[in-house]
Amino acid sequence: MTVEDHLVKHHVIENPAAQDQTVEDHIGLPWYVLEDYRCFGCSPHNPHGIQLRFTHHGDGLRTAFSLGRAHESYPGVVHGGLLGVIADEIMGNLVVLRTGLIPFTTGMRLRYVLPVIVGGGYDCVAKVRDGGGQLVHTEAEIREDGGALVATATASYQTVSLDAAHARMSLDTSEIDRLRRALAARTATTATSPGTLSEEPHVSVD
Amino acid sequence: MSVSTDELISEITGIVAEELGLSPDAVSPDADLRAVEGADSVKVLRVVARIERSHDVELEDEEVFGASTIREVAEVLKQALTETAAV
């Protein structure tokens, strides 16, 4: 199977809002070339995860989500910490797609405005604020389907090359090779502002 | 370039009026924000979120929730902008 075959591979998902997005709509993340990756936020293979899918939204990304009682805090209310997961997930994947590098979150801040209701439909969009320096700065906002703002987030990411990052990941040589090609392929098809984000690693991870 | 407190008051008044569905003329910079007709804690939070996004600043919860009027919010924002510019 080629890298591109992997990228459009259909996945069974449990997030009902995500199921509204067709295979053609959602972005094939570089991680899809890893048959068994278990990212809590975006893996289609983790039954305990939230299985987010992303679409392009201008220069940024969008994801639709609806969470159930497994993600509850107060009765009928989604746990607020999960909004951080969703914001981090969409912003982190945006950095991956824009740079082809591996981002590590160095800081994130959330402003909570409204509670997220179990079973409710929500949208999260994210964009890069600036990425010319040591860190890539991003922002995201979560809204109800009706448009009401429920949370905003800002975050900073330190980006490293896959070569530098893989020592901290459980990947074999074959997986690293596939992931490297997928990162390059996704960056080639999604980078819209190459002048604003460096494609060179900013730091090394030892 | 520093922004004057009066300019910030004018901007925040516009945001508050929009969130509450009022004319800017109907919102006094010295009125108690939470006592303005139609105001509630969620709308105040929306105002705070919009201010943070438009100025790319993070306001301290203790300060912004301690502010009662638009003028006081403008002063909190001006201080945050000054600190950001000094970094």
Automatic annotation (TrEMBL), chain A:
The keyword Lipid metabolism applies. It is a peripheral membrane protein. Its EC number is 3.1.2.2. Signal peptide: none annotated. GO terms for biological process: fatty acid metabolic process. Its main location: membrane. Belongs to the THEM4/THEM5 thioesterase family. This is Acyl-coenzyme A thioesterase THEM4. It comes from Frankia nepalensis.
Automatic annotation (TrEMBL), chain B:
Keywords: Phosphopantetheine, Phosphoprotein. This is Acyl carrier protein. Transmembrane segments: none annotated. Residues 3-81 form the Carrier domain. It comes from Frankia nepalensis. One of its GO terms (molecular function) is phosphopantetheine binding. It comes from the Bacteria.
